[in-house]
Amino acid sequence: MDHSPSSNAPSDHMNGSNKKPRTAATSIWSHYTDRRSISDTHWEVKCLNCDTCYKIKKDGSTGTSTLHKHHRQCQDKVKPDGSPLSKHTSHHGSASTSSSGGGGFRLSHDYTQHEAPGSPSNHPSTSSQPLAAYPPTLQDYLFGAAQQQSHANDPLQQGQASASALGLSQTNGYDLAASMADAAHFANNFNARHDGQGGVVGEVVDVMVLNPNSSEVITSNLAQLLEPNRAWGVKHSYRTGPPSAPPSINDPPTSILSAQTTFDDLRRTSALSDKSAVLVCCFSAHPLVPMIRHEYPHIPCMHILDTAINHAMSCGASTFGIITTGKAMVPDIDAGVRSYLGGVSDRYKGCVATGLGVLELGDPNSKERVESKIKEDSARLALEKGAEAIILGCAGMAGMEPLVRQGIQEAGGTLEKVWVIDGAKAGVQILTGLARSQYRVV
To answer: What radius of gyration, in Å, describes the C-alpha atoms of the chain?
Structure first.
């Protein structure tokens, strides 16, 4: 490959600009590969010493100052035996960013291999391990870096913002891999510093997702719903009520029984001693919430009725309604809505009961009936009652958003102004924010 300045330097007939063409005096080009077009406006070049990639504008207006700066820093990089780095033998696996002086942001290191820190230079090693083998916080950083890998051609501003969100430094020769390991080590120190009093130190938040009945299948469904959207630096601790709790909550008596048995179990096991927040996954004005707030006033606690209404009122919909299971729960739900809103509101279009049982929602033998009722009553709520936001009024309905939308479409409605709200999804987001904000200090 000809790396002479005359062959690498952009020229007027290539870039269409009126700028003076590069000449042999611009010797910086001898340190980089031939240009590779990556867009209508940008070339990409790669350092022959360390494989760091840069974007430069085709019109020649930006980029060369960055190349000069990189060359000054890169020429000091050597192999462990003291010899210079050569092309395709990058010491750090080809992880790169630009300097802040211009150029572009590119991530070329393959973090999808989930490399672990621990080599003598504190850089990730080249061995691969399953993602689950790493501590939870490091898993978050590795996942985030893999996400960046898939968006390697994002504009500079997006790339820098994404790297900043990961807590990754753009220094030390632009070694993103080493920065990721440092950030993970820093985050793991936060894990060790959790204050154990319901608040958090740094970014670690442990939200208990509490199913107050004794049915493990509902807890499992909640985990499948919530884990894909779990935020970085957040842990979800899933817990099911004790065996003495009712298998489902279908009316006020089972609600009260589940609250008492679950509360006693929480106190006996000290299960809340290290939690940042608690989400009670029962769609009602469940009495367990005020019980926890009274006993543990420093821990934010909400049930999914309140969190669902919060998002329904905030998402842009002008009205909302609720689809739930049995008719016995409707008066309690209506009372909970009035309590949250502080009275009667025209924005609330009512609660529709499907007549389904909580455990029936997850029964494969009842699949056809469940799908039919969810679609039918969702359409009635949206098209007849005028609800723009449809709230799933039971923890057992987790993941049924597609059925709601399908029912509305099959009944002749459009999805242009339809929001489908799940209180559990809303709850972990709201409680994570409350825990991090630490409005109350004890």
So the answer is: 28
